């Protein structure tokens, strides 16, 4: 299978720049997606189970706030756990998942349509970081955007503002957005969520190098890398890196690279937000927060905002 040219470009550019960094979107080949599913069930990785509980508790209030006859527009292909909770609470007439990867989108949409025969499921294969034209069927319907998981945290603040503005362009004036945002908390709790004792997150991180070797004729010596997760206080984010334990030389598609012991490839940012940070970010993205729900330990928050 010939590699995605965007993957090739991001990897070659990312390994060539200093500090070396590869965008987190490339984690999610089949192995990476399966490893992420395993991460969501880890005892240390609280976000998924916490957000799911919040959605269960807040569903009725969200439905009351957004009103009837809506279209739920999910930015991403939808998760088998969280999406049905929202659909069950809001009972929309249409569901529009938007995702750049068509295969995953089609399979998850088909599964959801089978489970919700009364729902019009209208998948759109697109890059939702830019405004997306929604199917004509949903034009007359009020829109409720859904962006769970604190995936917004993968983006640096300026990129997150741009994404929020694109979502507003896609959904239109008066639309609602339900968005998950992970809270700042005890550093030890945060770091262990990204460096679990079983090493599943380490395998998830290292799989990116295995994917480069698989798809880009890479010769990276995986045994020379170790997973690192650290809290960056100044940026309020967890950073994941792959650190070399010795001097190495390798190729990617024939292009040579060398790394000294201790150098890293920065593979992910997961920004965390206090309540004020979250509200400021939404406002910068031209969204007005109208409600928020958290868990009893204030580990995670779900915001409802209006355009
Ligand atoms: C899917 C991006 C929300 O940042 O917490 C989980 C990905 N990375 N463990 C996150 C992830 C390491 C996750 N997001």
From TrEMBL:
The keyword Hydrolase does not apply. Residues 7-306 form the Histidine-specific methyltransferase SAM-dependent domain. One of its GO terms (biological process) is methylation. Gene3D superfamilies: Vaccinia Virus protein VP39. This is Dimethylhistidine N-methyltransferase. The lineage of its organism: Bacteria, Pseudomonadati, Pseudomonadota, Alphaproteobacteria, Sphingomonadales. Pfam families: Methyltransf_33. InterPro entries: EgtD, EgtD_Methyltrsf_superfamily, MeTrfase_dom, MeTrfase_EgtD-like, SAM-dependent_MTases_sf. It comes from the Bacteria. It comes from Sphingomonas aerophila.
């Amino acid at each position: 299978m010939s590699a995605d040219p965007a993957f090739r470009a991001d990897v070659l550019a990312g390994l060539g720049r200093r500090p070396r960094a590869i965008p987190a979107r490339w984690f999610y080949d089949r192995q990476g997606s399966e490893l992420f599913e395993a991460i969501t069930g880890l005892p240390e990785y609280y976000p998924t189970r916490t957000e799911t509980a919040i959605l269960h508790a807040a569903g009725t209030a969200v439905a009351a706030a957004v009103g009837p006859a809506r279209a739920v527009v999910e930015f991403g292909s939808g998760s088998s756990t969280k999406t049905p909770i929202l659909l069950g609470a809001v009972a929309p007439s249409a569901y529009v998942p938007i995702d750049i990867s068509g295969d995953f989108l089609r399979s998850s949409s088909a599964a959801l349509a089978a489970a919700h025969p009364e729902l019009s499921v209208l998948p759109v294969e697109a890059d939702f970081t830019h405004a997306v034209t929604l199917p004509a069927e949903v034009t007359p319907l009020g829109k409720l955007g859904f962006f769970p998981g604190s995936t917004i945290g993968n983006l640096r603040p300026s990129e997150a503002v741009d994404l929020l503005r694109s979502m507003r362009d896609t959904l239109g004036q008066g639309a609602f957005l339900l968005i998950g945002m992970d809270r700042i908390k005890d550093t030890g709790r945060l770091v262990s969520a990204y460096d679990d004792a079983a090493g599943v997150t380490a395998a998830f991180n290292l799989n990116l190098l295995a994917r480069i070797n698989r798809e880009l004729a890479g010769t990276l010596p995986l045994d020379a890398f170790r997973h690192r997760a650290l809290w960056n206080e100044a940026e309020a984010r967890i950073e994941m890196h792959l650190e070399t334990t010795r001097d190495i030389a390798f190729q990617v598609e024939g292009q040579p690279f060398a790394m000294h012991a201790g150098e890293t490839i920065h593979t992910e940012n997961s920004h965390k937000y206090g309540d004020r940070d979250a509200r400021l970010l939404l406002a910068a993205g031209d969204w007005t927060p109208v409600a928020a729900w958290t868990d009893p330990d204030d580990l995670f928050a779900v915001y409802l905002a209006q355009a």
